[in-house]
Amino acid sequence: MLVVDTSYKIFRQLVQKFHTDEFLTLGIPISSRKMATSWLNAAPEFLLARFPFINALSLLMLLGERAQQETHPPIHPNVIYANVAVFLTCGFLLSGKVMRKELSLVCAGQMLFFAYNMYTNTYLHYSQWQRMRMSIRHLGCSGMFILYSHLQDKSGSSQLRRLGEIIVGLYLIGITYILNNSAEDKRAFLSHIVGGDWSRYFYTLILACAALSFFSGYFLRDMSVSMIILLTLSTLFVDCDFTFWTNRRGMHLWNQIRIVLDDICLILGFTMLTVGFDNRVKTKND
């Protein structure tokens, strides 16, 4: 009994020690944990707020790369100047935490415009699979900016949330379609990811489950974590092989860079959702 009593006292002392304000489990200070959690909450939003700057720069670099082979720009110069000006304005104001809800919706609208333009503009002279690769990622970024606007909305508008979720769901369906129906993307995946078709089937299954999750509004946090992992792997091992895409598949270098940047934007967006969203829809309005 003496041994039991002694063990129990030691156990209670350890529990009390690790539940004080100075210690967390494994001896990590609670203040450090709060700092890390705060940084994790702020980092995706901080980077997304600066993404319009990156969009403006990459757009100009892409048009500059194409200008070496073209006599007329594929997009009217006034449209280019206007979009660059809006990107820069949104970037400065979002970085200053001014009108984040409204300006993130402006960014979402711009991404929708470029998604439409990249797919329908015949003056760009892109093949079908190239147009799909670019436009579907722009669509996904648009959905992320709408969800970012929802998180900045103090009233918690359910309409913004549902719209953003549906657009992200459409992006996931589009990526699933491209992976299985575009010969170029299928070949790129199989040549860079181990496991062959079985890996592609598994990837497709996760994408389809994520799409259903966003369409329904359930389990968003879990599926966002899954998408962070899958997108990070595919971005690093497939999309970042610039030699493969530019030399062997005829993509412009800055086109491929923009695709990678869109992937990073989507990864940041899914990271934001893991922090800001719950796994289930808690109310009927959501």
UniProtKB/TrEMBL annotation:
TM helices/strands, residue ranges: 42-63, 75-96, 103-119, 163-180, 200-220, 227-245, 257-277
The species this protein was found in: Mizuhopecten yessoensis (Japanese scallop)
Entry keyword set: Membrane, Transmembrane, Transmembrane helix
Metal-binding keyword on record: no
PANTHER family membership: TRANSMEMBRANE PROTEIN 101 (PTHR31034:SF2)
Any one GO biological process: positive regulation of canonical NF-kappaB signal transduction
Protein name (database record): Transmembrane protein 101
One Pfam family matching this protein: TMEM101
